[in-house]
Fold these 2 entries.
Entry 1:
Amino acid sequence: MYREISPETVEFFDFMQENELFDVLGRKNKRAGGFMTFFQDYRAPFIFANFNGTSSDVDVITHECGHAFQGYITRNEELLEHNDLTMETAEIHSMSMEYFTYRWMDKFFGNRKEDYLTMHLEDSAQFLPYGCMVDEFQHIVYSEPDLTPKERKDVWKKLEMQYRPLLDYDNDPFFSAGGWWQKQGHIFYAPFYYIDYVLASVCAMQFKIAMDRDYKDAWERYLKFCKLSVSDFYIPELKAAGLDSPFEDGCIKHIVEEMEKKV
Ligand SMILES: [Zn+2]
């Protein structure tokens, strides 16, 4: 797959393999999850995962390879601060890579490729309202610190009816009463961070639309965006890659219209 995407990904993947920069296979006692990190002294990205034989192994590897590819392509950047990425930018690198690998998914899923792609796209679409909801919930609970536990659950429940009206908890007493927010760890350990995923996802979707029209042009713009790291502010960087800002009116509407054509 990475041999066919572009000359840069060939170089990237060879580098990763030759230097044994993947630790992704499952082992007893290995921690769960997946991440990419960067070894500055070696100017090398590193990918950790714990494969369990499900389709999420593919999600993890394409996602983390997006982060790692960006790290690789900018590994010789002299100003370290230019690679001090924040998530609304970094997650564009990773989420877009998930889309850039779509056309090779038969290598993983055979004749169930389309099933995987449908699931992936539905998950991505559903995430936008959910991510916004997590953000709005935090705005409310921080501006009203005296809410009781029950009132906080009521806030979540009301937001769920607005953002996820088709959700059915099958009468589970805890979740039906607005308890789901306690499952969302970011609310506890990274306040107001969650919306960054939504901003990034909206931009990655624009790359998806672009690659369906002209894969090579979309890739070139993605490469340019990766090379920018965070050497400039968010909006000018988006513009440089030909992306609309998620803050602009009409941005989401346009994406929905384009994505619906695919359904
Ligand atoms: Zn990521």
Entry 2:
Amino acid sequence: MSSILLKNISTAVTFDNKDRIYQDIDILVVDNQIIAIGKDIKAEESTEKVDCSGCVVLPGFVNTHHHLYQTLFRGIKEVQEKPLFPWLTGLYEFWKHITPEAVYYGAMLGFSELLRTGCTTTTDHHYLFPKNTGVNLIDEQLRAASEIGIRFHATRGSMSLGRSGGGLPPDSVVQKEDEILKDSERLINKYHDNKKFAMQRIALAPCSPFSVSKSLMVQSRDLARKKGVMLHTHLAETLDEEKFCVEKYGKRPVELMESIGWIGSDVWFAHAIHLNDREIKVLRGSGVAHCPSSNMKLSSGICPTSELVKQGVKVGIAVDGSASNDGSNMWEEVRRAYLLNHLKYGTEGLSAYQVLRMATRGGAEVLGRDDIGVLEKGKAADIAVFDLKDIAYAGCHDPLVALVTCGNTSVTKLTMVNGKVAARNGELMTINNESIRTEAHKIASGIVNKERG
Ligand SMILES: [Zn+2]
């Protein structure tokens, strides 16, 4: 049995059903659960005590969309200042060289930055399986997640519609549909854990309407529902995508999803920007991963977050792939979500509390989980501790506003996943930070140089 007592917490924001916020409070964690929240909790001699005076404590952030391999492809000069479609076609040429080793190290980089910035659960959307690379790339991500100690929802992404079939990606990075479905089933059987406090789950995630066939969407839907796993894809991200869907299918992106039954509590979409009023209502009960940095960098548009929340759509926040962000800093993403929401809605904008809720409990709801995202007795001990004793916050009169709008010091004092401390003051506890950094950078340079020749 292991136990940790977080003592003298200045502010603990629970995001429970009563929206409770505590001052000067302790939290006791035993094994992987929160056991008590209260004043002056007494603990055994052997319990580790962490002084949290001057700190805000939240449930760990939940990142609802990422492409971890893209951490190796940041700042590629050939694709800067480009919108989504030319950005993608430029990057496919580099991405086609990825290897299982690159996928492992790319995942380690992304997980590291997520943990350092308060994220305790992340998803990933890996859809790139270049010919001759083998199909076991997601296994490498799952291995990395388990080694570093982050809660991980891997999605089995896919692309089946190459250029010769009218899609966007080159034929060298797409797969046959039976191969995709076979590997999807293998991953679910091997790794998906639907129990409470699961550390690893699998979802199925055909990449987007412009890179898979409708038939693969339908077959993925059937397999996911037969196996009881969730569905995920990119949707309504750009006007180029909308044009593609109208020309190919005679339907707008959301209409296409409706026509094949890809709507509901077991589905979440990345982006959901270009929606009309009817489509926002159609998405009620489904989930959306809002990716503000990516949407700004690729000039995709602004997600209608306030309207989605108002209409009962589940909204989480996400860093998206690092090549369009270019970071995996979840804390920074919360700040950008808040600012972008205010750019669009002004006085109707969401509060700091609402945006932080979106990044924690909101993300957990998107992923269909009620065991994480809340600080409450019996919930998973996924906790982020933010130390506000820094010059960046001096003079701020509200700790939640401080977290969201004062900029940030980038790393948490402590990030705990499933009762284990994964990061302290920016240092990862389970891996050698420096060797991961140097090895990942070496692999990234090798791949990029291979393409440039
Ligand atoms: Zn994405």
